[in-house]
Design goal:
With 146 residues, the chain is an alpha/beta fold. It has four helices and five strands. The radius of gyration is 14 Å and the shape is globular.
Length: 146
Amino acid sequence: MTTPWNPATAGVLPLPSGRLVRGRGLRRPPPEGPSPTFGLYLLGHEPPATAWESRWIRWPDFRLPSDRAAASQALREAWERAVTDRVEVACGGGRGRTGTALACLAILDGVPAQCAVAYVRSHYSRRAVETPWQRRYVARFGGIPT
């Protein structure tokens, strides 16, 4: 088992189950501390290669994932891997797409869908999930009719 993220580190989202996931913006330098063991990158273009295992979801800035089924599968994998791996979820700025993905992980972890955006804004960044369609994506991910 990998040493987990330090829950006091900026950008680390503690999920109710105790899983820890780090969110960040790729336009900023990597934070101090250990590297991820798994990364989920949400970008409109292929990300640079990493020294750790990673997945890329084509997800243009301020938009939604191009392939929603693949995004759902990758989010589930990230959530499952957060039990044993240091999982990082990142986009360019670390707020909109990353916040949306983190809200989906919170739903998978048992946070009610109608509370997931508020949970991520409270525990990760108050500016997470930037657009109405990102909020709607979170609600639909949780099965709430919109």
